[in-house]
Amino acid sequence: MKLNWATIPHPIIALSPMADMTDSAFCRVVRQVSGPGVIVFREMVSSEAIIRGNDKTLGMTEIHEEERPIVQQLFGSEPEKMAEATAIIDRDHNPEGFDINMGCPVYKVVHSFNGASLMKDAGRAGAIVQAMKAVTNKPVSVKIRAGWEDPKECLSFGKALEEAGADLITIHGRTKMQGYTGQSDWNLIGEFAKTVSIPVLANGDIYTPQLMTEALETSGAAGVLIARGALGNPWIFKQIEDQLAGREVEPISLQERIDVIKQHVRFHIDQFDQGSVRTFRKHLSWYFRSVPGAKPFKARLHTVDTLEELDIVLDEVLADGLGGEALSRRDASHPLAADRWFIAK
Ligand SMILES: Cc1cc2nc3c(=O)[nH]c(=O)nc-3n(C[C@H](O)[C@H](O)[C@H](O)COP(=O)(O)O)c2cc1C
Known about the structure:
The structure is a single chain. Helices cover 43% and strands 14% of the residues. It is globular, with a radius of gyration of 20 Å. Strands 1-2-3-4-5-6-7-8 form an 8-stranded parallel barrel, surrounded by 6 helices. It has 345 residues and is an alpha/beta fold. Flavin mononucleotide binds next to β2.
């Protein structure tokens, strides 16, 4: 499939890049559960590490055919290195698009003028876009925050990216200094979208189909990019599709949850190795976060070492039923809750 951000139907619905989470295994699960309409963004990789030929980083850019269409995100501060890394990934793995991380707030990334630091230097940011566009015919998008400290910074920054040739911009409606505090400002995203003529995706705090609708209505954006709302919840894209099509948003049965976890862990082992059940525990935490009735199983899920052990615990969870019909209620106490956790028999 050729990805064209200018012609793709709206609203665009996409999985946001998340380091250590949106790896090939998770992207395959999202694709299987949610179908072909969703675009998946792979976690960021360092352009420097790609150029150095770092095996682990190169491995992170491998693509399973089932995942496509995918967008590979890169971070870096040097236009030439970003271009060189883009060319390597394009040649070796042929993703449908590239994305540049200009929003990451973590020290490890911003201290060397990567991620959100680039919002302080529109000239350099534009040069990166231009350099990448010069070496690939795939679309090049950019993911930014509202600003470094001032949430209005994005308003001039977006124009600079568009002039440099960016094909799409995703904006997380918080500043770098805010981190994850406060709320993503969907009104600001709307203001931002009016400053550019390329599509803009709204990001931040979209955990349910209802919040997707609100984010789109408030911002007027061309679509949404969803991060935490998809963790342990790859069904969100299917639910969004149902909501957009005017269909009933189906609850996720416990059987379905367990089946998908079993599939996901097998993809995870395929991608990494047999010992990687330990690194899968982070996904288990998300899959059972706020699931009422799961508490008695959590300690075992958080310490599981092997696939066999995990299968046994999951079968016990299924046999237990976690309270059955009573569990289809909302767990409104959870900060990410709204109505994302449906469990029905
Ligand atoms: C575990 C985790 C890892 C993340 N890694 C990346 C990343 O690699 N690249 C990026 O642009 N944003 C990254 N983000 C930010 C998200 O893509 C997203 O912008 C942010 O979480 C807000 O969206 P949400 O409210 O839907 O979670 C990460 C977020 C989380 C929670």
